[in-house]
Design brief:
The protein is an alpha/beta fold. The protein is built from 10 helices and 14 strands.
Length: about 300
């Protein structure tokens, strides 16, 4: 796939010396979904605002579909749709007019069929004559997405799109994102919900203190940095781990009924066979064995804290 968004050494500093972005470089392919994770104040929104032309960069470059965001602003911005964090909509305007007006802002003529298609896709068609103030918070977020899609952008930024919405609506939004991907739209998603990244992203980026710590394929990231655990459940509880098992660095959980062994999935030998043999030699009787993979949340927390995963 071709590169649709190219960010090179992007920096943003303020008069007081604060560096919000510290040399961000990132290429995003057409039609992929990138989840950008990071704590509050990490630089996620600043990065999006800079790419969208809302914030002026201190240095560096951004190309969208081959257009420079500074020297070819109109052409670049026309390719971008933005769903901001904050719900800023005219409360007394109707849903229909709100979305239709956004299309006109980018120089596109009236296209009622296109607006209808967007509203139906977002389950807003029955609300098209309602004023914004009559909508729930979740429906208002859908209107924000409809506004961002009205001019048919090729790159869509979703800045915390499911913040404050219930689980059912969040899953609906994931389905919408999947449909947009199928239509070839490139999506950059910032989120605090780790399960959101796990559910829909192709790649995951982690940003903290204005620096991009990594960008990696989601599956590869979990395989390379995640740990696996094997939980050995015993038929009878024990109070202490036998000394003969000390070499395995086990922990005892579950009211003394579960031995937990952590191992590297990339190691030449996992040590599981030796462990199970040693457990039997220690006179312990197994009732069950289970494995568990580190979650993306655990990987993320360790990356931001600077600890090894």
């Amino acid at each position: 796939m071709s590169i649709i968004l190219s960010i090179k050494d992007l920096r943003k500093s303020y008069a007081d010396g604060f560096e919000a972005l510290k040399g961000i470089s990132l290429d995003i392919k057409q039609g992929e979904i990138l989840a950008l994770l990071g704590p509050n104040g990490a630089g996620k929104t600043t990065l999006i605002s800079t790419v969208c032309g809302i914030t002026t960069p201190t240095s560096g470059s951004v190309m969208v579909g081959g257009h420079d965001i500074q020297t070819e602003f109109r052409a670049a911005r026309k390719m971008i749709g933005l769903v901001p964090q904050e719900i800023a909509l005219e409360p007394f305007e109707t849903v229909w007019n709100t979305v239709r007006f956004s299309r006109g802002l980018f120089g596109y003529g009236s296209d009622n069929a296109r607006i209808e298609e967007i509203l139906r896709k977002l389950s807003l068609w029955d609300k098209r004559k309602n004023s914004i103030k009559e909508l729930s918070g979740g429906m208002k977020r859908r209107v924000l997405i409809a506004k961002a899609l009205a001019h048919e952008p090729r790159v869509l930024f979703l800045d915390e799109p499911t913040a404050g919405v219930d689980v059912e609506l969040r899953k609906d939004m994931w389905e919408i994102v999947a449909e947009l991907k199928q239509a070839g739209v490139t999506i950059i998603l910032t989120t605090h919900y780790i399960e959101e990244a796990e559910a829909i992203a192709d790649r995951v980026g982690v940003i903290d203190k204005g620096e991009l710590l990594l960008v990696q394929d989601k599956g590869t990231l979990m395989a390379q940095m995640g740990k696996k655990q094997i939980e050995v459940m015993l038929t009878e509880p024990i109070t202490d781990i036998p000394g003969s098992l000390s070499a395995h660095n086990l922990t005892l959980n579950g009211n003394g009924r579960t031995l937990v062994y952590t191992y590297d999935t990339n190691a030449d030998r996992t040590g599981i066979t030796t462990l199970l043999n040693d457990v039997a030699q220690a006179g312990l009787v197994l009732s069950d064995v289970q494995t568990r993979q580190s979650s993306l949340e655990e990987i993320f927390v360790n990356l931001v804290s600077g600890e090894a995963v």
